[in-house]
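Repro case for the chain-ordering regression, as requested:
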Amino acid sequence: MISFLSHLVNGLSLGSVYAIIALGYSMVYGIAKMLNFAHGDVIMVGGYISFCAALYWGMPPVISVLVAMVVCTVLGVVIERLAYKPLRAASSLAVLITAIGMSYFLQNMAQLIWGANPKSFPSVVSIPSISLFNGQLLISGETIVTVLANIIIMTALTLFTGKTKMGRAMRAVAEDKGAAELMGINVNATISLTFAIGSALAAIAGVLLCSAYPTLMPTTGSMPGIKAFTAAVFGGIGSIPGAFVGGILLGVIEILGKAYVSTELGDAFVFAVLIVVLLVKPTGLLGKKVHEKV
Amino acid sequence: MSQYKRKSDTKMVPVPSMAIVPERDIDKAPVLEARHLGIEFGGLKAVDDFNLIIGKTEIAGLIGPNGAGKTTVFNLLTKVYQPTHGTVLLNGKDTHGMNTVQANKAGIARTFQNIRLFNNMTVEDNVRIGLHNQVRYGMFSGIFRLPAYWMQEKKQHEKALDLLSIFDMQDMAGVKAGSLPYGAQRRLEIVRALATNPSLLLLDEPAAGMNPHETEELMENIIKIRDQFQIAVLLIEHDMNLVMGICEGICVLNYGRIIAKGTADEIQNNPVVIEAYLGKQKEA
Amino acid sequence: MKISKKFRSNLITYALVILAFVICQIAIEGIIPGFKMTRSLKGQLVPICVYIVMAVSLNLTVGISGELSLGHAGFMSVGAFSGIIMSSWLLGAFQFENETLRLLIAMITGGVMAGIAGVLIGIPVLRLRGDYLAIVTLAFGEIIRNVLNCLYFSLDGGRLYVSFNNPDIPGKLLLNGPTGATGVGKIATFTMGFVLILFTLFVVLNLINSRSGRAIMAIRDNRIAAESMGINVTKYKMMAFVVSAALAGMAGALYGLNYSTVTATKFRFDTSILVLVFVVLGGIGNIRGSIIAATVLTILPEVLRAFSDYRMLVYAIVLIVVMLATNSPLLGNLKNKLRSSKLVTRFFPLKEEAAIKEGDEK
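-- result from build under test --
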């Protein structure tokens, strides 16, 4: 029972990281209608920047996270402007391939700068672990921070998209770019803002991911990126609570699958659940149904 | 079939037709019979209690203001939507539970309001898709070029050109459908639908975007098609010259319900119809 | 006239492949002095054939059928491992020495097994559309890889043993879970690769120009219209998907039998993406383009070896620049200039050709 709880806590922690990435992924997909394959690599960049800021430039952990967020935000906006904006009218496949190219680019750039060898990432969290049931169940400081960060981010995003003018603009652009533009919304600025938010979230996710799983290398972001996208689809893409629920569920399923079924099959388990969900509910757990007009 | 008492008001053809066809007698064997047809989208009745009988070789019109539910009726008849109420009988056969493919095989073919051609395929290949179910050879004959392939391909090619010649389009056979002018695209859609060998042809705004001359030609061609292929035609159209000119029976739809049925003359003088189109006249 | 145009285009494709094969043979034999293939390039010949077949078969799904698949490497891995097991079994149990025939049977087995996998995966996947379909094919590719990591096959006195997640089976292990298949005989040949390319072209080009192929393309162009013309959408989508999977399986078997060790990590989704890049750069729906792109892009990293550290970076930049150059409206003028050169348009397809829904059956 205790071991189950311990796995569950680990699952929540991993799931929260997925959820934070998925929130960014989902917002970007919702507004730009593109699979941003490079999103996972922005996570990796965030990890490296925070790593360098803390280790080489001697910054305190919190500042290093902020630096990573700023760098990733700029990176995200620059990527969007340079690579995706010119392709706004192009086929989705062309954008996908460009995103893949961007992903290769970031990975190889990181390899040139920081080398291919994995770096041991020092945790940015200094909160002590909580010990429950006479020390049988240990909840690490990283887990607490990750779960809290996830809840705060989710709430903030929900409020932002629901209550603010920019958030409304974002939803309008996601629904219909042309109509939004006619209503006087600056579509380009709104899309840039979405990429900025998504990339800043990716930076946070990168730091939290590396704090919990402290190996950092150029390919660190790619698998979590794919899983986070899976989480976003799982929960219903474009939906903020969907990304939250999808991320958490995916993390828990992965950890429990690895613990009780097979370590080798952990990922297979995650993807199998995704497939089942999509077959039962083709737009994800919290996604909206779209009718096709004939 | 006998358990339903046929309502006399579902008949569409109150006058003898110019094209005299003996089996036209709609009481014996209508091509299409829709009874109390209806569909709801989330509580909204898009089409409600739609009753219609179309006889063999009849040209019928379905008119009504925008948003009246005309295309929805087409989608119900072709099973793009499954009706929530009522029945559709095609040549006396209940179409309940059929999907779009089966409805087509049962003898119903259509064109689309927003043209849906296979744009990257040639004109001839578009027609060949219509002929798909009349050609019988499988994947392996196709890949390994067995005799069946050569024989059937030749037959298909000839038939496709034959059909295209209705609209004098055989010279365009090798052109990509997407690059055709608008009017030709509409005509190609009709040919493609005809190729599936239907007994009822549904035309969704066939004259939209055509100039008066083209519309004139289209009217002649619809009659020609009906006479040559001995099929019934149901068309949605906003061009009243076309509707009043060739439709033997007209059905007027408003807010998803039939408000009037009859011949062109009857419809033109029907106050309910005039009101639906022009709004209620103010009392002087 | 139309048929002859298509026919001519197909003939050019076949001729191109045969010509390339003859030139390669001359270079291998060193018939012309000074014109001899380097060792490293010679080592790339079979992989090039494999990637050509992968690209052409994926083009059937992506370009002709219009479904974005990100799990093509999964079918390749099914073909690779079933081909290896078949080959080892034939050798171990029947002392089947003839390598060419063994390779052929292994490839057919790989094709059949991958085709079966295609049916099983196609049933759920083809109900979905667009990006959802893409993510699910990706998921299936990863599931296949994970499952293969847990599979153990062994041969003991002519009997084949299988187990899941348990390496404790009698005899010599043919497939050893995460360590993959080791001690495989390297029996793949360039000639067989060439034959496989010809076979793939024969199947794909003939399929496209037949009743079934037209139905597949009609569904791609307009699913609703195809349905109302009486075309069974599921059947034809499935046909394209399964044929594509089976061809990928045959390529996989050839690939697997070209190395002494094969692990499932070789078939990660990166490989699926790589093949997709070939298809897109060669032109969606353009079979000849796929062949050229697969060849050039497989050789390119070899040629860029001089840049060693920078070659993948250059590859990434080339990819982005090509996509921007061919799809961006800002570069429209440049595009029009490019359009005038037929060779360039063939190689870097313009936006109209690149659109997934607007493939061309060249």
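Ordering looks correct now. The interface with chain B takes residues 294 of chain A (CB under 8 Å).
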